[in-house]
Amino acid sequence: MPLSKVARLTASNMARNWLNAPMVTQFDDADITELEAFRKELKAEGEKRDIKMTPIPFLLKACAKALAENPVINRSWHSSGGKVIQKHYYHIGMAVDTPRGLVVPVIRDVDKKGLWELAEEAGVMAAKARDGKLSAADMQGGCFSISSLGAIGGRGFTPIVNSPEAGILGISKASIQPVWNGAEFEPRQMLPLGFTYDHRVVNGADAGRFMTYLVALLGDIRRLLL
Ligand code: CAO
Asked: Is residue 78 annotated as a catalytic residue, yes or no?
């Protein structure tokens, strides 16, 4: 069967990134029990605003903060092979599954936007993606990407870095798990995360610090304000 233009581009980008960037994926689970309780509290307000508050805006915000605190992840490999590029802005791509194939619109300046604004923009971008209305500019300039299969299912996956970005966060399906609190097992809502990075730009220790910080942020979203 002939491939769509999007599917052809995705195939060639995936193959190029896979062959050029040495990639490692690191896994962790974030305790999103409190985040989910807060998100549910926002549902009624979301209906009034006509905005769906999914976990995505929280993840975008937490990634922007974690990138700011761990600037190594916000770098790109320079094709000269002799330098890397440090970015000081936080534009994050969001993978969207569409009938034409996979597209990654970019949400700009995530650090400067609130959760409602991010929820609205993510919804608008996903709708534009599904309607085939994204412009080339809508998909350019990202520093980092997220790919959520949370609504579909699965315990983990290893996403492929969207070069020249150095990192991508794969989000799987949250579930209630027994977590030991030092005295007993408690039911907690755990979100499995897989963070793939370009090992030319990011070392394992940098990735570990980024992931640990991100998991702590998602576990206590008050930290987003710090
Ligand atoms: N765990 C459990 N439930 C989750 C979840 C998670 N990690 N993430 C979302 N959900 C829930 C949402 O909360 C929502 O439930 P409620 O209505 O009860 O709140 C439900 O799943 C549906 O969410 P959604 O699809 O409306 O929104 P989303 O923010 O999860 O996803 C988008 C938006 C654009 C990321 C998604 O539609 C999409 O296209 N995902 C596929 C991306 C993809 O293909 N990645 C692979 C790339 S590599 O091939």
From this structure: no
**What does the buried/exposed string (b/e) look like for 65-83 if buried means 16 or more CB atoms within 10 Å of the residue's CB?**
bbbeebebbbbbbeeeeee
Q: What is the pLDDT along the chain (226 residues), one digit of tens a residue?
A: 999 999 999 999 999 999 999 999 999 999 999 999 999 999 999 999 999 999 999 999 999 999 999 999 999 999 998 999 999 999 999 999 999 999 999 999 999 999 999 999 999 999 999 999 999 999 999 999 999 999 999 999 999 999 999 999 999 999 999 999 999 999 999 999 999 999 999 999 999 999 999 999 999 999 999 8
User: Which ligand 1 atom is at minimum distance from the Cα of 174?
Assistant: 1
The CATH superfamily holding the domain 5-225 is Chloramphenicol acetyltransferase-like domain (3.30.559.10)
Asked if 160 and 170 count as a contact pair (C-beta separation under 8 A), the reply is no
